[in-house]
Design brief:
- The chain is built from 7 helices and 12 strands.
- With 248 residues, the chain is α/β, with parallel strands linked by helices.
- It folds into 2 domains: 184 residues, 3-Layer(aba) Sandwich (Rossmann fold), CATH 3.40.50; 56 residues, N-terminal domain of TfIIb (Single Sheet).
- A hairpin with a 2-residue loop joins strand 8 and strand 9.
- 38% of the residues are buried.
């Protein structure tokens, strides 16, 4: 198993500043596409669960959540945020689980961190095997429009006990985004520095749909979302694409 230790120094900062920012977007989509089709108390698999704020919301609603992530520090925060959840350190490309799930999710561009189409297909194969027949799979990916608009420039967060400096960029030719962060934290009378480089890949919509079908998923739908309009057809200028399908 590949351990994603490069994410560990960033886990505290992510948990504090970004872990819950996607909830207003993803919760209405989950309600409309996934939760309404599950019985209360059903199990949900969260692939690349991060620091678990979404899992905390789902367990509060009565669902039983299993979260997997490659970073032990991300999972430490996830367990603290969602103490009723089950969390397992695992590689999304190679994991196996003893039970089958009626639904799986992977949100907040988690699967953009998978850097090749071959590896993304491996993730889809593992999710397919973890689902019950007719099991649901929902995930999102950043689009070229999203990277062009949001992954450019520098910004910083300055608070009494920590400073975060982010340098973000996107290469159109390579379809690769870089989140280059330096974090200073004050602990026990000393300042500590951590440098983190996180890469994302902008996968093509058609290629993703093809990989899903090859893995055994059916009824693949791709759409966008707007807080005012809700779920909408995916347009070229939308910054995020949502994929919804079933295990055949």
């Amino acid at each position: 198993m590949t351990l994603y230790t490069s994410y560990d120094p960033f886990a505290w900062t992510y948990n504090k500043h970004w872990g819950d920012t996607f909830l207003p977007v993803i919760l209405p989509i989950l309600d409309n596409l996934v939760l309404c089709k599950l019985r209360r108390g059903a199990r949900i698999l969260d692939v690349c669960c991060g620091t678990g704020q979404l899992d905390a919301r789902l367990t509060a609603l009565g669902y039983r959540v299993t979260g997997i992530d490659g970073s032990s520090e991300m999972l430490r925060h996830a367990q603290a945020n969602a103490p009723k959840g089950e969390f397992i350190q695992a590689d999304a490309r190679t994991f196996t689980l003893p039970r089958k799930y009626p639904a799986a999710i992977s949100v907040f561009d988690s699967l953009n961190h998978v850097m090749t189409l071959h590896e993304l297909a491996q993730v889809f194969n593992r999710v397919h095997d973890a689902l019950q027949p007719d099991g649901l799979f929902l995930f999102d990916l950043n689009t070229p429009a999203g990277y062009m608009r949001e992954w450019q420039g520098d910004y910083s967060i300055v608070e009494e006990d920590h400073v975060c400096v982010q340098r973000i960029s996107y290469s159109m030719s390579r379809r690769v985004a870089l989140f280059d962060s330096t974090v200073f934290r004050f602990r026990d009378g000393y300042w500590y520095r951590a440098d983190v480089k996180i890469y994302e890949k902008c996968h093509g919509i058609g290629q993703v749909k093809g990989a899903l079908r090859k893995a055994g998923f059916t009824g693949v739908e791709v759409f966008g979302f707007d807080l005012q309009s809700g779920i909408t057809p995916l347009a070229k200028d939308m910054r995020r694409a949502f994929f919804f399908c079933r295990r055949a």
